[in-house]
Specification:
Layout (H helix, E strand, L loop, with lengths): L1 H9 L6 H26 L2 H5 L1 H29 L4 H35 L21
Length: 139
């Protein structure tokens, strides 16, 4: 998203500037939001808020950014004049959209895997007879 923003800033002239401005806002917001989420993971706020809450916020934020980034890239590609920097910005916009959506897919499968692995076969948490025995019982 940073490269898409940089290439978009290099564009000097535009005919239909609405798509360019929407793409500029989206790419800059995506970059800043990604930095904010990275700071959440690297500071004590991650432990303070709790892992589940931070991951849930990350999931929904990245999902929203990915969907809006795809929309902004399509609008910018449709309204662009066809200059080299506009094409490069569109390409990096679609790459960034793909990266955000790939992050959503991997996060979704990791959360499903955690939910499946987190379920216990003994939901009542009662201990069976074999659970009370030591592992290396000496005779």
């Amino acid at each position: 998203s940073l490269l898409a923003f940089i290439f978009e800033e290099i564009v000097e002239e535009c005919i239909a500037c609405g798509g360019l401005y929407f793409f500029e806002f989206t790419s800059c917001s995506a970059f800043l939001l990604s930095l904010l989420i990275l700071c959440l993971y690297c500071t004590d706020v991650y432990e303070t808020l709790g892992e589940d809450k931070v991951q849930k916020v990350n999931f929904w934020a990245v999902l929203g950014v990915g969907v809006v980034f795809v929309l902004a890239s399509v609008v910018f590609a449709a309204t662009s004049f066809g200059l080299a920097f506009e094409k490069a910005a569109c390409v990096f916009g679609f790459f960034a959209s793909g990266a955000f959506l790939a992050e959503i897919i991997t996060e979704y499968f990791h959360s499903r895997k955690r939910n499946i692995n987190g379920c216990s076969e003994n939901p009542a948490n009662t201990q069976g007879a074999t659970e009370n025995q030591p592992l290396n019982k000496q005779s």
